[in-house]
Automatic annotation (TrEMBL):
Domain Disease resistance R13L4/SHOC-2-like LRR residue range list: 552-661, 669-892
Record domain Disease resistance protein winged helix: where: 440-506
Keywords assigned by UniProt, alphabetized: ATP-binding, Nucleotide-binding, Plant defense, Repeat
Disease resistance N-terminal domain: residues covered: 34-121
Keyword Transmembrane (UniProt): no
Protein's recorded name: Disease resistance protein
Species of provenance: Taxus chinensis
PANTHER family: PLANT BROAD-SPECTRUM MILDEW RESISTANCE PROTEIN RPW8 (PTHR36766), TIR-NBS TYPE DISEASE RESISTANCE PROTEIN-RELATED (PTHR36766:SF30)
Protein's GO biological process: defense response; response to other organism
Length: 925
């Protein structure tokens, strides 16, 4: 995960060219806040608080008025684009909704404190007095808003439901296979890739500058180049540059990729760091891409300051303006807009993904050509407009879109204005979560699960059991509109990336939602008055202990999300969090902290806590009091050896991540884990269980966790295997991802090893999507029952494999570490087999002699084939040249025959390249 730092604030000013169209972000904020406020009022726990009882009539009045305001949102949302007064009305309404929700949140906090003996009667009276004053102020502001609505002649939408907008999506189940990046069918990319290849191969060109407008596809082009050519270099490094970069941070990122720990830890000066980097790279053939270089960066001669030598290094920079790189002596490659024909092909790929170009809806074809012309050949604009129309069959909708595009002012930044139109067309309930993209820098890899937990932390998804699914449904909408690019990595984790232009839009919208990116604005001002920001994003901001100490007194009272990720913080003052009573999300990951202040225990409403990659040796005891915690990330805390026995007291915990902690942790998980009845994700290294009566977790304890969807376990004893066979996990029917490794030595039968069958009782896990098996035989019923499987990894010398080719959703298949198999089942090459398989890896099969030949239409979706350490394999299968989607073949430690046939100019190489010219073949003997 990466979170944006204060440098992105500069992007807001560049965005000012489109300020003539004001944001309608406020409408979605009001809608979301009204929904949350209404839900809190009907919550039984809220009704039982003394504050609610005292002010019940005022809260009910406020609820009715907010509901009336919400009825005007649809009309105000439309009018605000052209009417500044309506825009201000929306911002005022949003402030009221936020403040009303804050009051209820603080009442909830106060009710929790009421049970504390240290809370005196006088302090409760003072609190009630303050709340009464604030409610009175909101009532007066609400009256003014209602009067302004009448004066602005806003029209109420009488069909508006009192239910929050998110309710429409609560039943939308996220189909993960569909979220994966659709085939973008890149147009006109191959000639450009070859031209860049030529410049990289030219010894007279040490530095290349790819120049073009934002949204023209510079990053997309270089990603294609980088991925195809990176294996030819000893170091291949990609660095994303921001408008106001931190040289120290860039040096650390670069050093991390060449294993230079002294620079990564920031223990030396920038000059020394540059010297070290230079010495490491000067003798290595390297490819370094500096993506999105800006004027301020270029004026500092970034290449030399980073320490990059221009001798054996090939350097490529991408920039929006050639003037921004005037101090870099580079060969300029000027990106041109797409031709009309290529624009049309790209548009059709996203607007009509299920239609062939000669079978488009006849009533839309003419207007579609007109819309494509308005895109100006800018790929980002073309595909976002196309994606916004993909599910629209009405000619009137298309005519309205064309009219909007023709109103775009080409004198400023047409691509940005077109992106704004795509944002405007989002459902109202999705708009608030779009602003969370501003947390992350352009083109960085974002952990989707973490981002969705941020949404959940602020209450932006449904409150029912489907809020996790709803979050992924919202992500699906952003993906379908081409506002994010979602894909799955080789470890089956879902990530997304944000284009720089889209990030600009998200940051601009965030600044209007009481979100701040600068340290000096986040905390108390010179008068000592605390700020009222609700999101404080200070990651990568060069914050140290002194900054934290100096600002601890003025900690903002109303902040809901606080991010201090990747700052040089060792300690946090004891009272730093004392005033943050409504904090929902706290991210301290990748800092140097080893404990937390006791004031964290006062964060009664905290739902998301990330301590990933910190120095903690034990979970701080103050976390025990954060009883509403839903998401706890302790991953990669390498000194953390065990979880506390009281972990079971966190009854609301749904997501617990302890991957990559000390190896001891996986073998001494506390029995209290079994009390986490809401737990859905238990992400860990393979867990080892106790077979004795003690305080540690036993296999049978897991039977209580009926909501569990992810689990990784080792089977070390016969009684554990017997427990699995007798159905100890039978009730875990919601399981989505299951990893089981059998560590019991196999039985030798007739000169071969016999492994136990994957237990039949597991048939009940019909929703399973990911299955990782080690040293288990795979029964045939797996392919009959697990129709939703997308990922299978089978490791160990099992005797055979079931008919995996019949699994309709299978996208990734890893076959590993089989010392017995000499061939694979013939069904692997069957016509129509593996219809959706995208990635196939076969590793460490020393006796494997051949792969099945592929019949017509076999593995037609395959994109990547990896063959590792299969020395017995002498030839590749026939028919592979018919797999037109194949993008890459990797062969490591292959036989001489395979290496010879796949090296450039080899017979099989020539056959494949003749059929699939863009195929990337990598061979390492």
């Amino acid at each position: 995960r990466w979170v944006v730092s204060s440098d992105n604030l500069i992007r807001v000013f560049k965005f000012s060219v489109v300020e003539r169209k004001k944001s309608n972000m406020a409408a979605s904020l009001v809608d979301a806040a009204v929904g949350r406020f209404g839900a809190m009022l009907v919550d039984q726990k809220t009704k039982e608080t003394s504050i609610f009882i005292i002010f019940r009539k005022r809260f009910e009045w406020l609820k009715r008025k907010l509901f009336i305001v919400s009825m005007y949102l649809k009309d105000a949302d439309v009018q605000s684009v052209h009417n500044n007064s309506v825009e201000q009305w929306l911002l005022d309404a949003a402030d009221i909704a936020w403040d009303a929700e804050d009051i209820l949140q603080q009442c909830a906090v106060e009710s929790l404190y009421t049970n504390n003996d240290g809370n005196t009667q006088s302090s409760r009276v003072i609190f009630r007095y303050k709340m009464g004053r604030r409610i009175k102020d909101i009532r007066e502001r609400m009256k003014s808003v209602m009067e302004d609505a009448a004066e602005l002649k806003l029209v109420a939408d009488l069909t508006h439901s009192e239910q929050p907008s998110t309710s429409a999506s609560q039943n939308v189940k996220w189909k993960k296979a569909s979220v994966l990046e659709r085939d973008a069918r890149p147009v006109a990319i191959e000639p450009k890739v070859e031209e860049i290849f030529g410049l990289i191969d030219d010894p007279e060109v040490p530095v290349i500058a790819v120049v073009g407008m934002g949204g023209i596809g510079k990053t997309f082009l270089m990603q294609n180049v980088f991925n195809r050519i990176k294996d030819r270099f000893e170091y291949s490094i990609w660095l994303s540059i921001s408008q106001t970069y931190s040289l120290q941070r860039l040096q650390a990122d670069l050093a991390a990729k060449i294993n230079f720990k002294e620079v990564v830890n920031g223990r030396i000066s920038e000059v020394q760091a540059a010297e070290f980097i230079h010495s490491r790279l000067e003798s290595k053939r390297s490819l370094i891409v500096l993506d999105d270089v800006w004027r301020a960066t270029a004026e500092d001669d970034l290449i030399s300051k980073l320490g990059i030598p221009t001798g054996r290094c090939k350097i490529v920079v991408t920039t929006r303006n050639v003037d921004d790189i005037r101090k870099i002596k580079a060969r300029v490659y000027d990106m041109k807009p797409l031709s009309e024909e290529d624009s049309w092909m790209l548009f059709c790929a996203f607007a009509f993904p299920d239609c062939e170009q000669n079978r488009l809806p006849p009533h839309l074809e003419q207007i579609a050509h007109q819309i494509v012309k308005e895109g100006g050949g800018m790929p980002l604009a073309v595909k976002t407009v196309a994606a916004s129309l993909a599910d629209k069959a009405s000619l009137k909708v298309w005519e309205s879109k064309l009219s909007e595009l023709r109103e775009v002012d080409n004198r400023h930044d047409p691509v940005m204005e077109i992106l704004r139109l795509s944002y405007d067309s989002l459902p109202l309930y999705v708009k608030p979560i779009f602003t969370f993209l501003s947390f992350f820098p352009a083109d960085e890899v974002i952990d989707c699960e973490y981002m969705i937990n941020l949404w959940i932390g602020e209450g932006l998804t449904s409150r029912g059991e489907d809020q996790w699914e709803t979050g992924f449904a919202y992500l699906q909408i952003l993906h379908d509109r081409c506002l994010v690019k979602v894909e799955e990595n080789s470890h089956s984790k879902i990530y997304c990336q944000v284009d720089g232009m889209i990030l600009d839009l998200a940051i601009s919208l965030s600044t209007k939602t009481k979100c701040v990116f600068a340290t000096e604005k986040a905390f108390a001002n010179s008068t000592g008055k605390t700020t009222n920001y609700r999101r404080i994003l200070l990651a990568n901001s060069c914050i140290d202990d002194n900054t934290i100490v100096n600002n601890s007194v003025g900690s903002p009272e109303f902040v809901r999300t606080l991010t201090l990720y990747r700052n040089k913080i060792d300690t946090i003052p004891a009272k730093f969090f004392a005033r943050m009573n409504v904090l929902r999300t706290l991210d301290l990951s990748s800092t140097n902290i080893s404990t937390l202040p006791e004031s964290v225990g006062n964060l009664k409403l905290l739902r998301v806590l990330s301590l990933c990659c910190t120095q903690i040796k034990e979970v701080p005891n103050c976390v025990r009091n954060v009883t509403r915690l839903c998401f706890l990330d302790l991953s990669r805390c390498r000194f953390l050896q065990r979880l506390p026995a009281w972990i079971g007291e966190l009854k609301c915990l749904e997501h617990l991540n302890v991957v990559g902690c000390s190896p001891e942790l996986a073998s001494c998980m506390p029995a209290g884990i079994s009390k986490l009845l809401s737990l859905r994700i238990l992400r860990s290294d393979y867990l080892n269980f106790s077979i004795q009566e003690n305080k540690f977790l036993k296999l049978e304890h897991l039977a209580r966790l009926t909501q569990l969807q992810e689990l990784s376990i080792n089977v070390n004893h016969d009684m554990e295997l017997k427990g699995l066979e007798e159905g100890v996990l039978e009730q875990l029917v919601k399981m989505r991802s299951l990893a089981i490794a059998n560590e019991i030595p196999p039985v030798e039968v007739a000169d071969s090893l016999k492994f136990p069958h994957f237990p039949d009782i597991m048939e009940s896990m019909n929703d399973l999507e990911k299955l990782f098996l080690c040293n288990f035989s795979v029964p045939n019923w797996v392919t009959d029952n697990f129709k939703k499987l997308r990922i299978i990894e089978i490791s160990g010398s099992c005797s055979d494999y079931p008919d995996l080719e019949n699994l309709p959703c299978l996208e990734r298949l890893n076959l590993l570490d089989n010392n017995n198999a000499t061939e694979l089942p013939r069904g692997f090459g069957k016509a129509g087999g593996f219809p959706n398989l995208r990635f196939l890896e076969i590793s460490d099969f020393p006796l494997l002699k051949e792969l099945p030949d592929l019949e017509e239409e076999a593995m037609q979706s395959l994109e990547k084939l990896c063959i590792h350490s299969c020395k017995g394999l002498k030839k590749f299968p026939e028919g592979l040249e018919r797999v037109k989607n194949l993008r890459k073949i990797e062969v490591y430690e292959g036989s001489n025959e395979i290496v010879e046939s796949l090296h450039g100019g080899g017979q099989y190489w020539a056959k494949l390249k003749a059929s699939i010219p863009s195929l990337n073949i990598s061979v390492n003997q």
